[in-house]
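Everyone, carefully examine this protein record:
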Amino acid sequence: MSIIQLNQRQLKIIEIVKANEPITSENIAFNLNVTRATLRSDLAILTMTGILDARPKVGYFYSGVSEINLISNKIKDKKVKDIMSMPILVKKDLSIYEVIVTMFLSDVGSIFIIDDKENLCGIVSRKDLLKATVGGSDINKMPIGMIMTRMPNIVTINKDDDIILAAKKIIDHEVDSIPVIEYDEHDKNQIKVMGRMSKTNITKLFLELAGN
């Protein structure tokens, strides 16, 4: 069986939970002298792999590391390209109104923006569009490029990266989804969007593996 490689802080978290279960995230953070936000991704990984069990208003319990509850041996064989979905792409000169329509017809939480050469240049979320709508902007005339988050301030993932890395990025940056990209081998400024990795993709994978 292939065992997930835990870092030192994650191993320390397991020790604390074993000795004090049930224990809240606040108390775990206190024991490690860090903030709760710092532990968010570590706790997410430990619960998703089944090592810890989290119960609302109670705290964390140690579940153990076994072939039954540790599905990371299967996850490690999965790459982003195995579960990514099709991206929703729009051109940067499209109006905010048109992007709002596209988002709700596609039922996604974020849309990726491309330039005239079809390279990734931005991203917009539901929150961005809501701010533009209530902020008095003329959403029928203003291009989406005016309000999008631009490169290089976009969190991305490669199609050959591990699923755990994708999950960590989504959790750490508190986003709905991230674009799966591929760089041109001759020009790093040429960034093509190959897919979309979202919380839903990852949740479906865990449900599939747990069901099997």
In short: The first strand starts at residue 52 and ends at 55. Residues 125 and 168 are 19 Å apart (CA to CA). The chain has nine helices and nine strands. The chain has two domains: 8-75, 80-207.
